[in-house]
Design a protein that fits this description.
The protein is mainly alpha-helical. Helices cover 83% and strands 0% of the residues. Helix 1 packs antiparallel against helix 2 and helix 2 packs antiparallel against helix 3. The longest helix is centred in the first third of the chain and has 33 residues. The termini are far apart.
Length: 70
């Protein structure tokens, strides 16, 4: 039987996870913006932030930057 405090805790955790996803999307978007402007140093900074959350796209972009724009 699930009590209301368990549901509140679950909802709070889901909100935090959702917020993290939104922030990660924003960091990737900034990385893409700078990458498209060929500002690879700034792109790397934003992709690094997203990669630290475990984001696969950001990790891939960091690998691309390491290979192509070191």
């Amino acid at each position: 039987d699930v009590c209301s405090s368990d549901l509140v805790a679950l909802l709070l955790e889901m909100t935090r996870a959702s917020d993290r996803e939104v922030v990660c999307v924003a960091w990737n978007s900034l990385g893409h913006l700078y990458y498209s402007r060929q500002d690879y140093l700034r792109a790397r900074e934003w992709y690094q932030k997203a990669a630290e959350t475990g984001d696969a796209y950001a990790i891939s972009m960091l690998e691309t930057l390491a290979r192509s724009h070191s």
